[in-house]
Design a protein that fits this description.
338 residues, six-stranded mixed β-sheet, alpha+beta, Rossmann fold, ATP hydrolysis activity, 9 helices, OB fold (Dihydrolipoamide Acetyltransferase, E2P), 27% helix, 36% strand, 2 domains, elongated, binds adenosine-5'-triphosphate
């Protein structure tokens, strides 16, 4: 249950800069996600926090105190990796008790903690089984129990759900979240799954190319990211070129009010879900539907307006067909201009 501060951390592998001046603060009891594409440096960051890897510059503090001189087993941070890394020749009980045995805790204590953990992760009756006798989700719960048994101050989860099928992933995610909220353990979740990061976290850090590009609440990071790179990482958005003049963004789509100073070249980012389409009734911007895909609770449209193909996500409108002329309504309060 520590506050974690990562200060100006940089790391090179064979002269290649992998982490570039990483700064992050995670408040006590918070769960934050480190979100980014494959190879951007997420696992490296976790290993550095856990003390499993050296780095070139910077500092890591737990509760305001540098942990650089502490070995990994003294830091109180544990990592759960995506492939669980359970010991195959040990039973569930032995796996969960392993860290406590290493810490030379007495047998009675170990048994008590192991039983508590087995109950916590809902594996009562499975204690004597070996990992191969368990399902993927059960193995994962053993890995979580093993990590929590040593009462870490910091829990580091490296893509813990990525090996599970979608249904199991959702229930395991909720399961881990409940435990995290109950124990209030400071947690960093590494993921490349955007929805997972948004759903689970108090805050999300978007990591691209070894740099933290943005760090904010899920809503702010999704709706108001600081840079166009982060918008592009979330994907699926509309990018309109234009300029800002006298507090209006001017483009082929016309004028939209913005709170920005003049800029000769600017890009407006419009999320598909802030655009609504209606059967044409002569008011407002007009386009025509080029494509539509039914997706159950939403429909994906492509609408051509002034030679621009706009992606639109709206509820299904049974009166609309491909080729129809439609009015486009953009929520100007939700556009972003960079
Ligand atoms: N021991 C190592 N020696 C050399 N290069 C390494 C080493 N470990 C990682 N790298 C490189 O550092 C970069 C970051 O790796 P890292 O595992 O941190 O990425 P990641 O964001 O966790 O990716 P993924 O989501 O695929 O696990 C990659 O380019 C990787 O090839």
């Amino acid at each position: 249950m520590s506050k974690i501060q990562i200060k100006n951390v940089s790391k090179k592998f064979q002269h290649k800069e992998i982490l570039k001046n990483i700064n992050l603060t995670i408040e006590e009891g918070e769960l934050i996600s480190l979100l980014g594409p494959s190879g951007c440096g997420k696992t490296t960051t976790l290993k550095i926090i856990a003390g499993l890897m050296d780095f070139d510059e910077g500092d890591i503090l737990f509760d305001g105190v540098s942990v650089l001189k502490k070995n990994s087993n003294k830091r109180g941070a544990v990592i759960v990796f995506q492939d669980y890394l359970l010991f195959p020749h040990m039973t569930v009980e032995e796996n969960i008790g392993f860290g406590l045995k290493m810490a030379k805790r007495n047998k009675r204590d170990i048994k008590e903690v192991v039983n508590k953990m087995i109950e916590l992760v809902e594996l009562t009756g499975h204690g004597r089984k070996y990992p191969r006798e368990l399902s993927g989700g059960q193995q994962q719960r053993v890995a979580i129990a093993r990590a929590l048994a040593v009462e870490p101050k910091v829990l580091l989860l490296d893509e813990p759900f990525s090996n599970l099928d979608i249904r199991l992933r959702e229930s395991m995610r909720q399961f881990v979240l409940n435990i995290q909220r109950r124990l209030k353990i400071t947690t960093i979740l590494v993921t490349h799954d955007k929805e997972e990061a948004l759903l689970c976290s108090h805050k999300v850090a978007v990591m691209l190319n070894g740099q933290i590009k943005d760090y904010d609440t899920p809503k702010n990071i999704y709706e108001r990211p600081k840079s166009i790179d982060v918008c592009k990482f979330f994907g699926g958005r509309n990018y309109i070129e234009g300029r800002v003049k006298d507090y209006f963004f001017e483009s082929a789509l016309g004028e939209m009010k913005v709170q920005l100073d003049n800029k000769e070249k600017a890009t407006c980012v419009i999320r598909p879900e802030i655009i609504k389409i209606r059967k044409e009734d002569s008011k407002g911007m007009v386009g025509h539907i080029k494509s539509m895909k039914y997706g159950g609770d939403k429909t994906y449209y492509e609408v051509e307006v002034e030679n621009i193909l706009l992606k639109v996500i709206d509820i299904c409108n049974d009166e609309l067909y491909i080729g129809d002329r439609v009015n486009i309504i953009i929520d100007e309060n939700k556009i972003l201009v960079y």
